[in-house]
Amino acid sequence: KQILNENILKRAIKSNTPDNEIDITLGVYTKFDMGFLLYDDMITSLGSNVFGHSGVGGSVRLAAPAKNFSFSYVINRMNIDQQIKIDSRYKTMLDKIDSKLNDKLAF
């Protein structure tokens, strides 16, 4: 079930971050919109307009509207080195899920 209406979704996926701006807190390039982190450049396999947020230590939640897909990964052991980078623990899962989603869309 879609929780956000179309107008809010459009605002949720529009970057408010100036091009090539380094996040002063994290020290890396990121793109944020209306409170969400934009994952287009980090998780290209899920298409465009992927948004969500990660937590310190490796947890993440995101939505890929183009795939009608949402994902949440919660951990019980923090990996403090994975503050904003894509954690390999869930990147592998997302790649496999995307492969299955594409298989179903092909039929």
Features:
107 residues, alpha+beta, 4-stranded antiparallel β-sheet, 24% helix, globular
What does this structure look like?
- The protein is α+β, with helices and mostly antiparallel strands and 107 residues long.
- The chain has one domain.
- Helices cover 24% and strands 15% of the residues.
- The protein has a four-stranded antiparallel sheet, with no helix packed on it.
- β3 (60-64) and β4 form a beta hairpin.
- The chain is globular, with a radius of gyration of 14 Å.
- The model has no long low-confidence stretch (mean pLDDT 78).
- InterPro entries: Beta-lactam/transpept-like.
Gross morphology is: globular
Number of domains: 1
Number of beta strands = 4
Question: Distance between the terminal alpha carbons, to the nearest Å?
Answer: 22 Å
**Biggest sheet statistics:** 4 strands, antiparallel
User: What share of residues are in beta strands?
Assistant: 5-15%
**Strand order in the sheet with the most strands:** 1-2-3-4
Instruction: Assign the structural class, choosing from mainly alpha, mainly beta, alpha/beta, alpha+beta, or little secondary structure.
Output: alpha+beta
Helix content: 10-25%
**Mind telling me the C-alpha Rg?**
14 Å
Order of helices and strands: HEEEEH
What low-confidence regions span 5 or more consecutive residues with pLDDT below 50?
A: none
What count of helical segments does DSSP give?
Answer: 2
> What is the average of the pLDDT values?
78
